[in-house]
């Protein structure tokens, strides 16, 4: 029975992480909250790597057509310099450029950024809410082919800031992109295609943590439950969020952050 409850807790953590990964409310912060209130103390980064891998798989499934198009057209331009494919080639370059800041800071400050401090995550969630509220009414005109190197660099630094638990990765990159004048559709696509190299890179760097995890074999079923929960919930949550972005309802996520952040701070003061 004890094993069943442990599997259930990890499943709930996976569902929770999967639901919050695509939406701009910080999945890392919510994973910290959930562990705290479920009484689950997860050592190391193995579980986070696995649920992030599940979210990555969901993003790959949803954006598979964009990925195929970018790969084919990008390769075609690189080989044949076909002007019709130049914008897709540049889009790929901008994704690479935007990946660099988070990759560098992630390597340099890996231990600091893996903090499980609930109050830090709650305070950072409030910061996420403020950023979302400030850009709630912006409607840009830039499409995929209108992005610049400057845009890519600034969005990349926004993603680097989101390495702090409680700062939403999707929220930070979408806020930065919209503040730079991009259309909501472009901001959303760039944000989640940017998630792919960062998540994949994190998995590669985290292989050593997985191999060194002394509890991996005994927790394989709970980990599997968390992975499955995250995969399913990430897929449907991202689909839901895409519909919300079309309607321009980001302000509701800001309100959520303004409520949850202070509530968590208050609760932790008395726990």
Automatic annotation (TrEMBL):
Protein name: Undecaprenyl-diphosphatase
Top-level taxon: Bacteria
Gene this protein is translated from: uppP
A molecular function GO annotation: undecaprenyl-diphosphatase activity
Reactions catalysed: di-trans,octa-cis-undecaprenyl diphosphate + H2O = di-trans,octa-cis-undecaprenyl phosphate + phosphate + H(+)
Enzyme class, spelled out: hydrolase
Family: Belongs to the UppP family.
Gene Ontology cellular component annotations, sorted alphabetically: plasma membrane
Pfam families: BacA
């Amino acid at each position: 029975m004890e094993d069943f409850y442990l599997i259930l807790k990890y499943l709930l953590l996976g569902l929770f992480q999967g639901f919050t990964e695509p939406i701009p409310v910080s999945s890392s912060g919510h994973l910290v909250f959930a562990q705290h209130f479920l009484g689950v103390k997860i050592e190391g980064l193995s579980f986070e790597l696995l649920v992030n891998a599940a979210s990555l798989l969901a993003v790959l499934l949803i954006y598979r057509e964009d990925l195929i198009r970018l790969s084919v057209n990008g390769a075609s331009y690189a080989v044949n310099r076909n002007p019709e494919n130049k914008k897709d080639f540049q889009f790929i370059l901008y994704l690479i450029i935007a990946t660099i800041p988070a990759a560098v800071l992630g390597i340099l400050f890996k231990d600091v950024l893996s903090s499980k401090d609930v109050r830090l995550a709650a305070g950072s969630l409030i910061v996420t809410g403020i950023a979302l509220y400030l850009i709630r009414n912006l409607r840009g005109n830039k499409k995929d082919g209108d992005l610049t190197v400057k845009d890519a660099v600034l969005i990349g630094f926004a993603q680097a800031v989101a390495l702090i638990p409680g700062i939403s990765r999707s929220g930070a990159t979408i806020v930065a992109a919209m503040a730079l004048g991009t259309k909501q559709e472009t901001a959303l696509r760039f944000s989640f295609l940017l998630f792919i190299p960062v998540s994949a890179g994190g998995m590669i760097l985290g292989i050593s943590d997985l191999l060194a995890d002394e509890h991996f074999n005994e927790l394989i079923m709970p980990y599997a439950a968390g992975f499955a929960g995250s995969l399913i919930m990430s897929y449907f949550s991202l689909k839901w969020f895409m519909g919300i972005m079309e309607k321009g309802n980001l302000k509701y996520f800001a309100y959520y952050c303004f409520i949850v952040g202070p509530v968590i701070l208050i609760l932790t003061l008395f726990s």
